[in-house]
Amino acid sequence: MSEKYSTIHYHNYLELDALLSLQKERSKALGEAAHDETLFIIMHQVCELWFKQILTELDSVILLFREERVREDNMHTVLLRLRRVNSIIDLLIEQVKVMETMTPLDFLDFRDYLFPASGFQSWQFRMIETTLGLREEDRLTYHGKSYKIVFSEEQKARLTDIERGGSLFDLVARWLERTPFLRFRGFDFLSAYKEAVERMIARDQQHIRDSELSPKMKEMRLRVLGDTTTYFRHVLDREEHERMVAAGEARLSYDATIAALLINLYRDQPILNIPFQLLTELMVIDEGLTTWRYRHAQMVMRMIGNKIGTGGSSGHDYLARTAEQHKIFRDLHNISSLLIPRSALPDLPEELARGLGFHFRGDE
């Protein structure tokens, strides 16, 4: 048998001797063994293994998106790998339950041995955030200093390379900007969409006026509808959108935002369905990481209350704030504010509709 297909034992293939020797309890080494420290170590090691797999998937997706023209036959691969990332995040959330089988007193048996170690020092997790597109200026600071301060010079350099090399957010934004269907042989999507929005709002205004609501209630609903109209106009105006980007109120460019809107509105067209699913998976990643941070924050509150974390952070307060602030694909979520009912969508020109579908011409 060739060396390529030589036999190997399960135990050796998984390097189990090395793997199972990596749980080194500090409490035991110092003569005061705490039963639950083994669980604490294994849980965090498992997290780091899953972080490694997430990075493997994200790196492969970024490689595909770096092509000048993302090939359609690669889009399904991208979608499947992002779904795998989301399945792993689901596991990370679920395994918090195992950690919560440890009581606060159990944790106190060995907590003092952990100083100054902290989950904040997880280099792989910071790589995941940076690879997805979380920018340094959008992060909560660590005692007023860069999040990189806890890492070695080599690790800092790797994080900086990711920031400069184009995150997944940046690459997806450029991909959206290249969407070819915004203008198509006399069909201007944005103009048609704006007209549809105006018709929809005018119809809603008339329904309110014709309703049996009290004058006060009509006035309130018309005012709310007016606010909606203003929001549509702000987001759909290029100059206003660029002002929002400059002010940090939006991040996606105007062209990328309009492309994401088109993909969401015409998601049922076969050619746009996988792009729609891809954008959805990115939002699910955001939601999953937010949930994971929040569950982590709740677990910390349960374990140590309002005590300072072992790494010197504010513990629960810091983690809860990251759950709210460290969102990456917020712009994609905001697209929902611009959606209109399918019944109000502008009709696509027949040729464009055929191009977005699976049309077989045969021997015409």
TrEMBL record:
Q: In its UniProt record, which GO terms are filed under biological process? A: L-tryptophan catabolic process to acetyl-CoA; L-tryptophan catabolic process to kynurenine
Q: List its EC numbers.
A: 1.13.11.11
- Its EC top class is oxidoreductase
Q: Which InterPro entries match?
A: Trp/Indoleamine_2_3_dOase-like (IPR037217), Trp_2_3_dOase (IPR004981)
Q: Which reaction equation describes what this protein catalyses?
A: L-tryptophan + O2 = N-formyl-L-kynurenine
SUPFAM superfamilies, from UniProt? Indolic compounds 2,3-dioxygenase-like (SSF140959)
What molecular function does GO assign, one term? L-tryptophan 2,3-dioxygenase activity
Give the binding site residues for heme: 296
Q: Keywords in UniProt for this one?
A: Dioxygenase, Heme, Iron, Metal-binding, Oxidoreductase, Tryptophan catabolism
Instruction: Name the needed cofactors.
Output: heme
Binding positions (substrate)? 111, 310
Highest taxon, organism lineage: Bacteria
- Report the pathway entry: Amino-acid degradation; L-tryptophan degradation via kynurenine pathway; L-kynurenine from L-tryptophan: step 1/2
Primary role: Heme-dependent dioxygenase that catalyzes the oxidative cleavage of the L-tryptophan (L-Trp) pyrrole ring and converts L-tryptophan to N-formyl-L-kynurenine. Catalyzes the oxidative cleavage of the indole moiety.
Share what the entry says about its subunit structure, partners included.
Homotetramer.
State the family named in the UniProt similarity comment for this chain: Belongs to the tryptophan 2,3-dioxygenase family.
- Protein's UniProt name: Tryptophan 2,3-dioxygenase
- What is the species listed in this Swiss-Prot or TrEMBL entry? Neolewinella marina
Q: Which gene encodes it?
A: kynA
